[in-house]
Amino acid sequence: MLALVLLSLVAGSLAHSNGAPHQACRDGVPNHHPVAAMAGTMPFTITGGAYTPGQHVHLTISGNEPFRGFMIKASEGSFQAGANQQVMDCDGTADAITHTENTDKSSVTVTYVAPASAAGSIGLRLTVAVNHDKYWNPELFTLSQTADVITG
């Protein structure tokens, strides 16, 4: 009995240790059953510059508390994995990126590769998990060719 209690305490403190599961491609939900998503607006944002077709843009996820897991899925373009990150093939090649370890982070910067030709506004679906028991449903941010900051 004590072993089960200890195991549940450890599991409750973890996000997926090696990234979002592939099923999160469908709806962005990390599948932390039986835990439901937090209510309200997610207290995390994506910031970065405007994109130029074919160029790299550094996008930073940050918020008001440390987090352990993340996933960003782009409607167009792709990602390049940095340290402790891996790309996912959801609807296209490398069109999503997630963590590969579940240690606390105050922010994460990822490299987004814009499509080769102009695509207008690009949707970025962000999901963040503080731990296994505290995550938000995905929120949509928009990356524009002309804006200085991504809007959510």
Labels describing this entry:
152 residues; mainly beta; six-stranded antiparallel sheet; 39% strand; disordered N terminus; Ferric-chelate_Red/DefProt; Reeler_sf; Reeler_dom; signal; Defense protein Hdd11
What is this structure, in a nutshell?
It comes from Branchiostoma floridae. This is Defense protein Hdd11. With about 150 residues, this protein is mainly β.
Q: How does the overall form come out from the CA principal axes?
A: globular
Tally of extended strands? 10
- What percent of residues adopt helix (DSSP H or I)? under 10%
Give a quick account of the main beta sheet: strands, pairing sense, barrel closure: 6 strands, antiparallel
User: What is the CATH topology descriptor?
Assistant: Immunoglobulin-like
- Count up the helices: 2
Which CATH first-tier class would you pick? Mainly Beta
What proportion strand? Answer: 35-45%
H/E series, N to C? Answer: HHEEEEEEEEEE
- Give the termini separation: 45 Å
Protein structure class: mainly beta
The total domain count is 1
CATH architecture, by name, is: Sandwich
Round the mean pLDDT to the nearest integer and report it. Answer: 84
* Low-pLDDT residue intervals, each spanning 5 or more residues: 1-16
**Over the alpha carbons, how many angstroms does the gyration radius reach?**
16 Å
The CATH homologous superfamily is termed: Reeler domain
